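User: Can you recover a sequence for this backbone? Please restate the input before giving your answer.

Assistant: Of course. Working from this structure:
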């Protein structure tokens, strides 16, 4: 009798293990991953308190986080970028952090960045999931381009060109379709 109970208990334990394992495997390997909430070109950004997108032809938003080693490793590029911006570009640079304004100022000052404005903003508001994130935004608040993560030299060149090359608005070119 004892051996029949042991066999039945072992079978129940094996069945429970198979059911639990199959549920785990199904969720782990066969479920669809959630859609990333990553910002992309064409996204319209909500207004940030104290920032007017229409005041500049383009705004480069630097999404940085205190303690982010990729942000710190990218500091020489940001220094070159902000120094270049001082040469009369119509682009503005806005640094956003999920931290307090004091933490933001500390990071920007320690890295020697010359930017137009600082903002402590919940990153969810801008759909920033990773740092560093660079967003090129037009005067209507629409993201024109997005660079996420530490940039390659080619991507750094893209950002430099995108923030300094004149746009039609910069050149005051007439609309080829004659619209105003």
């Amino acid at each position: 009798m004892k051996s029949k109970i042991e066999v039945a208990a072992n079978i129940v334990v094996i069945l429970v293990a198979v059911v639990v394992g199959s549920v785990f495997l199904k969720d782990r390997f066969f479920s669809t991953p959630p859609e990333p909430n990553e910002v992309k070109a064409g996204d319209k950004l909500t207004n940030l308190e104290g920032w007017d997108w229409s005041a500049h032809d383009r705004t480069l938003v630097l999404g940085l986080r205190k303690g982010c080693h990729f942000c710190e490793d990218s500091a020489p590029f940001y220094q070159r970028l902000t120094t270049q911006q001082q040469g009369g570009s119509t682009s503005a640079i806005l640094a956003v952090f999920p931290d307090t304004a004091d933490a933001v100022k500390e990071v920007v000052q320690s890295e020697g960045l010359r930017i137009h404005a600082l903002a402590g903003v919940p990153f969810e508001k801008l759909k920033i999931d990773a740092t560093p994130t660079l967003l090129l935004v037009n005067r209507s608040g629409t993201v024109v381009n997005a660079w996420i993560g530490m940039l390659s030299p080619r991507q750094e060149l893209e950002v430099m060109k995108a923030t300094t090359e004149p746009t039609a608005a910069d050149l005051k070119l007439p609309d080829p379709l004659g619209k105003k």
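That completes the design. Strands lie at 58-63, 91-97, 117-120, 133-138, 143-148.
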